[in-house]
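Dear Dr. H.,

I hope your travels went smoothly. While you were away I took the liberty of generating a structure for the chain from your last submission, since the lab meeting agenda had it listed for discussion. I wanted you to have the full record in hand beforehand rather than looking at slides cold. The sequence, exactly as received, is reproduced here:
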Amino acid sequence: MSVSPSARRARGRLAVMAAGLVAGALALAGCSSSDDGGTSATTGSTSTAGATDSFPVTVTSALGSATIKSEPKRVVTWGWSAQDAVLALGVVPVAMPKNTYGGDADGVLPWDADAIKGLGGTTPQLLSGGDTGQVPFEEIVKAKPDVILAPYSGLTQDDYATLSKIAPVVAYPDKPWATSWQDQTTIIGKALGRSAEAEKLVSDTNAKVTTLGAKYPVLKGKTFVYATTNAADKLTIYRASDPRVQLLTQLGMVVSPSVKALDAKPDDSYFFQVSYENLSKIDTDVLVAYFGDQKSADAFVKDPLVAAMPSVKSGAFAPIVGESFVMASSAPTVLSIPWMLDQYVPQLAAAAEKAE
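The corresponding predicted structure, in token form, is as follows:
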């Protein structure tokens, strides 16, 4: 679930090219939206509670500041999981990314589909590029957003500048793909004028994670490495700043010191890679890794160098298997955490019990 350097360079070029296209598309959208720019009864609808904060509100990000003049009615989300917080706050976006990985036949993640149904909404416009990170500028123009929410994304400065011609853009506060689910929720809550509701969602979800951790005391203090295999003969390891790693530390686990020891460029991104020939340098109680299917997980542990790892040899290996589960754990949110954690934590605890 990482984005390659070549893909990032391509996005930058596309953003520059798109700036001119956006201007034309905005003009066309303005000509065709005289009567249909309001909130529909389903897509783009909100809960009856509505915003409780006052407007205008300004949200500052690493890429710039966005001033939202009034309560947004037409919300567009970008990135892996912003739509989760929006839906949890009672708002159905008018557009959100299509998830071919982990989503249903339409490209909607299962917990999002449940939330949309619960709000009495219909499937929003699904934006292309969700799997590649390439921002579909013209599609976003057609959605006629009041605000674009992307606090957990890989937006570039060029992307931000182009999108800001369409509507106020709320990007990440520090680094791309590094916003905690707690911060993502409160940032989106502020943008939607629902700060108190967002704080409660964070508090309730934190309490759930804490309760689960206490239910399985074997997890407390156990070291772990969070990894995947998206390159031949290399293990991709996620840094301590990544939200998926932080979720396990919330359960009481500790990031293995060997992660930092093997990390040659700690400020580079949210992950780094270790060749299989150096797997013996990984010292951890538990190994966590994700796979799209069971076949991939089985193939991983059959590799002799992987099988020789003490955590794998002892059975202290806790794979996350299945695309929806991978998405739920890779981009944890107030919606995906309850959806997946009850099922995964018992497996994680069972692995921790076998740690040498």
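Two observations you may find useful: The longest strand covers residues 223-231. DSSP finds 14 helices and 13 strands in the chain.

With kind regards,
E. W.
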